[in-house]
Write a structure and sequence with these properties.
It contains 11 helices and 10 strands. By secondary structure, it is of the alpha/beta class.
């Protein structure tokens, strides 16, 4: 018995519909290969993405070294961001060697820094690094998700935000959403002391207490930022309880990345965003 080995045209590896003798060649990630940049200390983004694996979609993670994980005060928080900027480039360069169709930033503090102007500058730098590949950032994904949920800026919508940050981080989150046209009624920060377990191990009951603190009748949506704080399991339940959008940033970024790749799969128990949009 002889086997016929068809030659695959490697110049067409981005063509997810490439077929040989009627069979898909690109069976790994034939719908989308999504590259994800995460801090080395982060244990939540991968966990949340692994709950969302549509057929034909693959997630590919690259970590950038966090050499300064101390977040105990504003000065250390700023130092954390300064060191982050020095190491993120190498992780992007490494990630691009797997030829992703789209890149998702699995970190959020830097994307809110400096409001709209600061976010635009950050996006421009990252886009230059990834080239013509599509890009999802935490800040832009949250705005797109809010708009999909009929909570748009510049129409008098009131929001509250939960963060793991120090006051300097909360100030920049407030600035970004205010620049985006929202009435930011409250930003409540956990003031976590480090970038790893102090954030990732925050118990659900503490997050729920924060939701109770920021919620009010005039709040149209509640947003959680800080990608190492996973609320992907608890927030969909709270959302049904409060009957208003309650949005985790990891769900928003994964949704934005998938939809940007044309992947429209919907999921139950992950909140209105994936159930309805």
């Amino acid at each position: 018995m002889s086997l016929t080995h068809a030659t695959i045209d490697l110049s067409r590896t981005r063509d997810r519909d490439q077929r040989t003798d009627g069979h898909l060649d690109n069976y790994i990630g034939h719908r989308a290969k999504i590259g994800v940049i995460i801090p080395s200390t982060n244990t939540s983004v991968e966990y949340d993405c692994q709950r969302l694996i549509p057929r034909g979609v693959s997630w590919h993670f690259s970590r950038f070294m966090i050499e300064h994980a101390d977040l105990s005060d504003d000065d250390n928080f700023i130092r954390f961001l300064e060191m982050l900027r020095q190491t993120i480039g190498a992780s992007i360069e490494s990630l691009m060697t797997c030829k992703p169709d789209h890149v998702m930033m699995g970190m959020s503090a830097e994307t809110f820094w400096g409001g709209i102007e600061g976010n635009d500058g950050f996006v421009e730098k990252i886009q230059e690094a990834v080239g013509d590949v599509g890009l999802t950032t935490g800040a832009n994904a949250v705005i797109a998700a809010l708009e999909a949920l009929d909570v748009s800026g510049n129409v008098g919508k009131n929001i509250a935000v939960i963060t793991p940050y120090q006051p300097i981080g909360d100030k920049n989150v407030h600035l970004f959403f205010e620049d985006s046209g929202y009435n930011v009624k409250q930003v409540l920060g956990l003031r976590c002391e480090n970038a790893h377990d102090a954030i990732a191990l925050v118990p659900d009951h503490q997050v729920m207490d924060m939701v109770r603190q920021v919620d009010a009748d005039d709040i149209d949506a509640i947003i959680q930022v800080g990608t190492n704080l996973s609320t992907a399991t608890s927030f969909p339940v709270i959302e049904k309880w409060l009957e208003k959008p309650v949005l985790p940033i990891n769900v928003a970024t994964a949704w934005h990345a998938l939809r940007s790749c044309g992947v429209r799969d919907q999921y139950d128990h992950l909140g209105r965003l994936f159930e309805e949009h």
